[in-house]
Structures are given as structure tokens and as C-alpha cells.
Amino acid sequence: MVHWPETMVTWYAAEGVIFSGDAFGTFGALDGG
Fold this sequence. Notes:
InterPro entries: RibonucZ/Hydroxyglut_hydro (IPR036866). The chain has strands at 8-12, 17-22, 25-31. By secondary structure, the chain is an all-beta fold. It has one domain (1-33). The chain has a three-stranded antiparallel beta sheet with strand order 1-2-3, with no helix packed on it.
């Protein structure tokens, strides 16, 4: 779900997790491993 084009995705390689968040904070996470 994308609210705005400026929506950012953060990748934590150490945890193997990707977070996508907007101005209101994290709204979703996918466990990569």
C-alpha cells in the first residue's frame, strides 16, 4: 500500500526484514528470512 510517491522502504540486512513506512510510521513489514 503506497500513500505517496515519497513513501520510503527501509531494509535491515542484519535482521533480514524490510519495513515500509510513511509519515505516520511503519504500517507494514515483511520477514525476508
